[in-house]
Amino acid sequence: MVGVKDEKSEKCLELFLKIGLDERTAKNTIANNKVTTNLTAVIHEAVVTDGCDRRIGNLLYTVATKYPANALVHRPALLKYIVSSKIKTPAQLEAASSFFASTGSEDFKLDEFEEVCGVGVEVSIEDIEWTVKEIFEENKNSILELRYRTNVGDLFANVRKRLPWADPLNINAKMYELLGEKTAADNEKPTKKKEKKDKPAKAEEKKIADDALGQPSEEDLNPYLIFPRPEDNIQVHTEVPFSDGSVLRCCNTKEMLERHLKVTGGKVCTRFPPEPNGYLHIGHAKAMFVDFGLAKERGGCCYLRYDDTNPEAEKKEYIDHIEEIVQWMGWEPFKTPEEIKEYREKKMNSPWRDRPVAESLKLFEDMRSGLIEEGKATLRMKQDMQSDNYNMYDLIAYRIKFTPHPHAGDKWCIYPSYDYSHCIVDSIENITHSGLYQPYVWEYSRLNISNTVMSKRKLNFLVTNNYVDGWDDPRLMTLAGLRRRGVSSTSINAFVRGIGITRSDCSLIRLDRLEYHIREDLNKTAPRTMVVLNPLKVVITNMDSSSIMRLDAKRWPDAQTDEAFYKVQFSNVIYIEHSDFRKNDSKDYYGLAPGKSVLLRYAFPIKCTDIILADDNKTILEIRVEYDPSKKTKPKGVLHWVAEPSPGVAPLTVEVRLFDRLFNSENPAELDDWLADLNLKSKELIHNAYTEPSLRDAAVGDRFQFERLGYFTVDKDSTPEKLVFNRTVTLKDGYGKVGISPNRGSSLGRGFGVVLEDSLGCLLVWLGSLVFPGANCRLNDHRQEIPPRAQSKSHHSSRGRSKPRQEYHPITVQANTDTQGFINNETVNDKAKCVATSQTLHVYELGLSSTFPTFPLNNLDLVSYVVSSTMEIA
């Protein structure tokens, strides 16, 4: 509860208590300056400063918090009705507020108002009792069973439908009369009964599993429900307090709204106004989703309007890019056409503020004619320099810029500011959601994504100083960069829809969320193929060197038709990943090793029989194996591979670019030296990867899933001689990804990669110290090896909607002392698996968060902890 400190607050508290507010509500009200001001004004307007009945006081409080600001001229009249008890119930007050919201400041007919609000309608006690009794009889069985746990709101709603002006207090009395005194059972918390469900048949399991993901809410299906209709834009949506205590309330008159609706036909008109001073980034995708998406959903139109009032930073290249990228995103525009700082901080008026009007007009004409040097004069709007809102200081309307405009050339040398031009153009274009028609303005937040910068100034610095390879560098969050990386507009729009139209700037969206939507899209659209990044030669000794088989491989995991298969060549010389072979085998390793067997994807089992080393006796030149044409051997590990197409001929060679996060920190924008945080290993070039001949005809922009590696897209730098692929995103839950330590992991976690996340790493170091007091915990990052995949059905099981397979990702907390510990009521993952053995605790990510009870660690079989990514602590 808020305390009361100064004398003014004490007087307000005394005033609020006089009208019947309880002390807690009164003190909390004082903490809100706006409500305090409104309630104080309402009490004085109602002439009840000496106090009033509590019921009247509660209604006055509702007026102070909910009365429409566009009808303040009628508030005194409403207060008279309340004080005289002509309006005495919340339902009547709600009806009155709705009436005045639609009326605004216009005159109204008194008899119409009284009819709408039920003034003079008296509902007798007998009528109320009869109606309540009737409803109770209809629900008697349920009420007698649930007693005081009955949902009174539903009962009351039924009473209000039949008797809208009835006194709501009578329902409680009737309920007490029917149920009598509360018993101990009435005070117990209700328990939910779980219904037993029959186990579904296997044929139905997948469908039911998909349905079990839950039905989306109405706002999930239509995020634009939060926006009002154009015909409702008569209420105050902006209040601007001035330093003299007055308040500017922005709203439309009925006549103004009618003229607007006549011109627009009642359609929603929005605008997307980017400044052409750089390439658009993913934050603009959110703006497009709101501006174009709302107009499309409501059957309206959206203007693409360039904020081209600063020609110094603008280029024709940027204008062309904006128009092209908007269309790529799937949207169709309706039309495409130091003293100052000190004054603002100290709220000082400019010495030229009171210059005579005639002299100001003469100087403005000189500005327009080019007679005044750039930076020597500006035209400012005369506003309120004493306001607490800095937007009310004297803002610039026009300034001098001797720079040719991309559209107008050198015809003009003065340009309007953003603040001056947009409000005028909004009105001229009849913008519905942004004297002149007052658009509805929705200030939604900017989109902040982790491990990158979104400021155009910083993006421009990175591009112009060659820290990145242009505006479309795949590491940037520009829309051009994302497109070049292989991200589709579908996944970007799905991501924006998923995060919602938020208004708070405080949140930082993790890059993982975007990557999730990218994978969901590519899983359905990217055909599978096999590529070996770091080839190791494998010679099959029991296969004739001239023998070449053509085997079926699947473009899609659920391949049924001929088109879903492609042919791969299998010869006695193949190539696997260097990281898929070890000289020394181990229990938890499922790759190839001396004397060990693995299965080649779509082909045969092979067993290592020999290793050919270089002169240094360390470097592996090739390995020799025997294959099992009968396929009787059933190894656990599965490897991808590429074969020589003919004896002595190397497979098709391609260049592969592996991209990582551009910055090491989650929020580099907060750092003083943000450039020092650049990830120097954010781009890795692999010049001689081997791939299947079927990729030879791939075109720029084609997307593929390289099995066990990730999703890749053909880059524009490709030539007829050599294809270039960009890694779009890794396989989070696929066969494996670059990064697991060859010496770590358990049988449950085998074959799944490890990606180090700094913030979660800190959390897990803390977990290690909690579980093992005194232990020396540290983070290990292993990013060089690809683990082999244990045989199992692929997560990517269909081109249609798929349910993510539940995989286990290993996290190892290893201590250097024999200790015991407890984990108490932490936020955890109720489906995650934790296996504790002596000094090591393995945690496996899976499912949603909840809490778990206290367990002694040395007896722990299953424990849960929330983990959002995979890593290793050792």
UniProtKB/TrEMBL annotation:
<dbReference type="GO" id="GO:0004819">
    <property type="term" value="F:glutamine-tRNA ligase activity"/>
</dbReference>
<comment type="similarity">
    <text>Belongs to the class-I aminoacyl-tRNA synthetase family.</text>
</comment>
<feature type="domain" description="Glutaminyl-tRNA synthetase class Ib non-specific RNA-binding">
    <location>
        <begin position="11"/>
        <end position="168"/>
    </location>
</feature>
<feature type="domain" description="Glutamyl/glutaminyl-tRNA synthetase class Ib anti-codon binding">
    <location>
        <begin position="526"/>
        <end position="628"/>
    </location>
</feature>
<feature type="domain" description="Glutaminyl-tRNA synthetase class Ib non-specific RNA-binding">
    <location>
        <begin position="171"/>
        <end position="241"/>
    </location>
</feature>
<feature type="compositionally biased region" description="Basic residues">
    <location>
        <begin position="792"/>
        <end position="803"/>
    </location>
</feature>
<feature type="compositionally biased region" description="Basic and acidic residues">
    <location>
        <begin position="197"/>
        <end position="210"/>
    </location>
</feature>
<dbReference type="InterPro" id="IPR007639">
    <property type="entry name" value="Gln-tRNA-synth_Ib_RNA-bd_N"/>
</dbReference>
<dbReference type="GO" id="GO:0048608">
    <property type="term" value="P:reproductive structure development"/>
</dbReference>
<dbReference type="Pfam" id="PF03950">
    <property type="entry name" value="tRNA-synt_1c_C"/>
</dbReference>
<dbReference type="InterPro" id="IPR014729">
    <property type="entry name" value="Rossmann-like_a/b/a_fold"/>
</dbReference>
<feature type="domain" description="Glutamyl/glutaminyl-tRNA synthetase class Ib catalytic">
    <location>
        <begin position="438"/>
        <end position="523"/>
    </location>
</feature>
<dbReference type="InterPro" id="IPR011035">
    <property type="entry name" value="Ribosomal_bL25/Gln-tRNA_synth"/>
</dbReference>
<dbReference type="InterPro" id="IPR020058">
    <property type="entry name" value="Glu/Gln-tRNA-synth_Ib_cat-dom"/>
</dbReference>
<dbReference type="GO" id="GO:0005524">
    <property type="term" value="F:ATP binding"/>
</dbReference>
<dbReference type="Pfam" id="PF00749">
    <property type="entry name" value="tRNA-synt_1c"/>
</dbReference>
<feature type="domain" description="Glutamyl/glutaminyl-tRNA synthetase class Ib catalytic">
    <location>
        <begin position="334"/>
        <end position="434"/>
    </location>
</feature>
<dbReference type="InterPro" id="IPR020059">
    <property type="entry name" value="Glu/Gln-tRNA-synth_Ib_codon-bd"/>
</dbReference>
<keyword id="KW-0648">Protein biosynthesis</keyword>
<dbReference type="InterPro" id="IPR007638">
    <property type="entry name" value="Gln-tRNA-synth_Ib_RNA-bd_2"/>
</dbReference>
<dbReference type="InterPro" id="IPR020056">
    <property type="entry name" value="Rbsml_bL25/Gln-tRNA_synth_N"/>
</dbReference>
<dbReference type="Pfam" id="PF20974">
    <property type="entry name" value="tRNA-synt_1c_C2"/>
</dbReference>
<dbReference type="Pfam" id="PF04558">
    <property type="entry name" value="tRNA_synt_1c_R1"/>
</dbReference>
<feature type="domain" description="Glutamyl/glutaminyl-tRNA synthetase class Ib catalytic">
    <location>
        <begin position="267"/>
        <end position="333"/>
    </location>
</feature>
<dbReference type="InterPro" id="IPR001412">
    <property type="entry name" value="aa-tRNA-synth_I_CS"/>
</dbReference>
<feature type="region of interest" description="Disordered">
    <location>
        <begin position="182"/>
        <end position="220"/>
    </location>
</feature>
<dbReference type="GO" id="GO:0009791">
    <property type="term" value="P:post-embryonic development"/>
</dbReference>
<protein>
    <recommendedName>
        <fullName>glutamine--tRNA ligase</fullName>
        <ecNumber>6.1.1.18</ecNumber>
    </recommendedName>
</protein>
<keyword id="KW-0067">ATP-binding</keyword>
<keyword id="KW-0547">Nucleotide-binding</keyword>
<dbReference type="InterPro" id="IPR049437">
    <property type="entry name" value="tRNA-synt_1c_C2"/>
</dbReference>
<dbReference type="InterPro" id="IPR042558">
    <property type="entry name" value="Gln-tRNA-synth_Ib_RNA-bd_N_1"/>
</dbReference>
<dbReference type="Pfam" id="PF04557">
    <property type="entry name" value="tRNA_synt_1c_R2"/>
</dbReference>
<keyword id="KW-0030">Aminoacyl-tRNA synthetase</keyword>
<dbReference type="GO" id="GO:0005829">
    <property type="term" value="C:cytosol"/>
</dbReference>
<feature type="domain" description="tRNA synthetases class I (E and Q) anti-codon binding">
    <location>
        <begin position="638"/>
        <end position="715"/>
    </location>
</feature>
<dbReference type="InterPro" id="IPR050132">
    <property type="entry name" value="Gln/Glu-tRNA_Ligase"/>
</dbReference>
<dbReference type="GO" id="GO:0006425">
    <property type="term" value="P:glutaminyl-tRNA aminoacylation"/>
</dbReference>
<dbReference type="InterPro" id="IPR042559">
    <property type="entry name" value="Gln-tRNA-synth_Ib_RNA-bd_N_2"/>
</dbReference>
<feature type="region of interest" description="Disordered">
    <location>
        <begin position="784"/>
        <end position="808"/>
    </location>
</feature>
<keyword id="KW-0436">Ligase</keyword>
